[in-house]
Amino acid sequence: MAQVGSILVVCVGNICRSPVGERLLASALPDVSVSSAGIGAVVGAPADKVMREVAEAEGVSLEGHVARQFTAEIGAAHELILVMEAGHRSEIARIAPHLSGRTMLFDQWLGGQGIPDPYRKPIEAHRAAFAQIRAAAEGWVSRLGRKRGQG
Known about the structure:
One of its GO terms (molecular function) is protein tyrosine phosphatase activity. This protein is α/β, with parallel strands linked by helices.
């Protein structure tokens, strides 16, 4: 896969799944600019409390995260856009059709079934989503080929 200099991770609210994906990719790909956004973002909100706790227990800090709304401009500023569900890809194509070619599923290398939203669900749903996001991130890191001894 060609070298990618910037990645945008997208979910709905930008408070559960995409912040985790962003932090995992950013820590494993130090030469890549990684950020996140939501197609229905809880603009200005920190990461979800339950997801912060789950991530922290797994050694991933979501401290300082601030949710932001996906826009065509934000999308265009990134070479690769990774979404958590097929519906998110469709929404990005609707908002910014010219970005369709750079939009892929975050779990592309795990079969592309999508990663369910754990928001307002029990902690087990958050743990399951975190595990799926971590496995999917590892797939991207191995294919982007710039893993620096982490993971």
